[in-house]
């Protein structure tokens, strides 16, 4: 089937339409391409197809610096020019606000601000994860392919921090060498790097049990000179695997990063934005929206290791910071102590069950992809907060939650700003400033 690609989906695929008007999600194509595609599956509402041949390239098609673009799952938009990527991300946000949030075209035009981004389109990721696969007697480390069951062996990743160009090859080589003598039972390998602090951490995710700690640490130190080598011990089935503990093998035992004016330590299991420079845009937007004063009580829900907590505490009288994930809570407390702050209460637990009360002046929420629970929206609405900053990583759940806020009649959005933290992918962060009605 010959198809003209109309636009990018919120996902790795592009969107075309059949002559009859049915939507087709096409893999291996970008907006503006004319392709010959083969239908792989079909429902009454839509079809999925794979590009067989590029007939006419899009004017926005570029040569990606990664030879695995389109094969590896890490840069599905690698062939799309950066300006077109930014425009597509804005359009995906606008579409979600219209379809799911039921915003009018006039409201969307008024609220959505131009997308913010940093200069680096490649080499921006401070973290990558290597998948592990046994092939006979050999252990192979690499990236997940567009087919998640496929492991792509790579020597380098152009998305990864350019200050450490040989790190991935060195780590994969060292671990493959170690695996020749015994099964390390690796589940995955996390690598974090910072051009600002020169910190490089290797995190080995394994089940509990015996492990050649000293031997592994020595070989990795010889190969890449990391500042930290840790083993993250896990337990349980793959679908419900949990972290038991973080075990120091060599070095600091955590990763060190400079973000804004703060120096933070983050343990391997804890979440931290993969694009440090773009995360600083998020901080600026949150602080601009909340404009906390020295007498204000602030709240940071889903606070992680303290990315927003620390700058809030510098400008507020008090911050209640709530986080449910145990390793992140420990990192948060350590970062508060390192920053010399005594006006933060670090609360471990669920955001709804541990909601700190209604005496709040400003509030920031940075929930996971699933967005806010309905109870959380009710609790936020019941506070005295004058302003809320909502940081979202998913436009669909964001649009749903903004409609819930509007239905509650307590907070309304005054600006919605997309931020490109993930060039070469369809993912996009958004910061929404809500103020009391």
UniProtKB/TrEMBL annotation:
Keyword S-adenosyl-L-methionine: yes
CDD domains in the record: AdoMet_MTases
BP GO terms, sorted: rRNA base methylation
Stretches assigned to the TRAM domain: 1-53
Pfam family of the protein (one): tRNA_U5-meth_tr
One function term, GO molecular function aspect: rRNA (uridine-C5-)-methyltransferase activity
Key words, A-Z: Methyltransferase, S-adenosyl-L-methionine, Transferase
Binding-site list for S-adenosyl-L-methionine: 273, 302, 323, 366
Family statement: Belongs to the class I-like SAM-binding methyltransferase superfamily. RNA M5U methyltransferase family.
PANTHER family registered for this protein in UniProt: RNA M5U METHYLTRANSFERASE, TRNA (URACIL(54)-C(5))-METHYLTRANSFERASE
Protein name (Swiss-Prot/TrEMBL): 23S rRNA (Uracil(1939)-C(5))-methyltransferase RlmD
Species the sequence originates in: [Collinsella] massiliensis
């Amino acid at each position: 089937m010959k198809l003209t690609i109309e636009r990018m989906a919120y996902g790795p695929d592009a969107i075309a339409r059949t002559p009859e008007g049915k939507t087709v999600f096409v893999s291996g194509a970008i907006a503006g391409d004319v392709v010959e595609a083969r239908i792989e599956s079909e429902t009454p509402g839509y079809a999925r197809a794979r590009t067989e041949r590029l007939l006419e390239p899009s004017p926005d098609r570029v040569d990606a610096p990664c030879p695995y673009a389109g094969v590896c799952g890490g840069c599905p938009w690698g062939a799309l020019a950066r300006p077109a990527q930014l425009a597509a991300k804005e359009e995906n946000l606008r579409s979600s606000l219209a379809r799911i949030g039921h915003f009018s075209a006039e409201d969307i035009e008024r609220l959505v601000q131009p997308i913010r981004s940093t200069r680096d389109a490649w080499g921006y990721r401070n973290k990558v994860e290597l998948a592990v696969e046994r092939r006979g007697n050999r252990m192979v480390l690499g990236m997940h392919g567009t087919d998640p069951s496929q492991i792509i062996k790579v020597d380098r990743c152009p998305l990864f921090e350019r200050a450490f160009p040989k790190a991935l090859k060195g780590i994969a080589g060292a671990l493959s060498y170690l695996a020749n003598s015994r099964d390390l039972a690796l589940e995955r390998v996390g690598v974090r790097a910072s051009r600002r602090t020169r910190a490089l951490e290797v995190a080995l995710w394994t089940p509990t049990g015996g492990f050649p700690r000293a031997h592994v640490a020595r070989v990795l130190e010889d190969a890449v000179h990391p500042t930290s080598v840790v083993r993250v011990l896990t337990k349980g089935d793959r679908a419900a695997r949990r972290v038991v503990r973080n075990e120091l093998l060599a070095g600091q035992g955590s990763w060190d990063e400079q973000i804004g004016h703060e120096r933070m330590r983050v343990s391997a299991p804890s979440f931290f934005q993969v694009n440090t420079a773009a995360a600083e845009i998020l901080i600026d937007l949150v602080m601009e929206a909340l404009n906390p004063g020295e007498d204000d009580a602030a709240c940071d829900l889903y606070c992680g290791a303290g990315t927003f907590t620390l700058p809030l505490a510098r400008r507020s009288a008090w911050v209640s910071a709530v986080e449910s994930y145990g390793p992140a809570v420990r990192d948060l407390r350590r970062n508060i102590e390192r920053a010399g702050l005594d006006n933060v209460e670090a609360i471990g637990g669920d955001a709804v069950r541990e909601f700190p009360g209604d005496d709040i002046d400003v509030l920031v929420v940075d929930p996971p992809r699933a967005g806010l629970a309905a109870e959380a929206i009710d609790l936020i609405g019941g506070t005295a907060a004058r302003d809320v900053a909502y940081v979202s990583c998913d436009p669909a759940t964001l649009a749903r939650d903004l409609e819930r806020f509007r239905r509650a009649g307590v907070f309304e959005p005054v600006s919605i700003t997309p931020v490109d933290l993930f060039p070469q992918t369809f993912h996009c962060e958004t910061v929404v400033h809500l103020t009391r009605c």
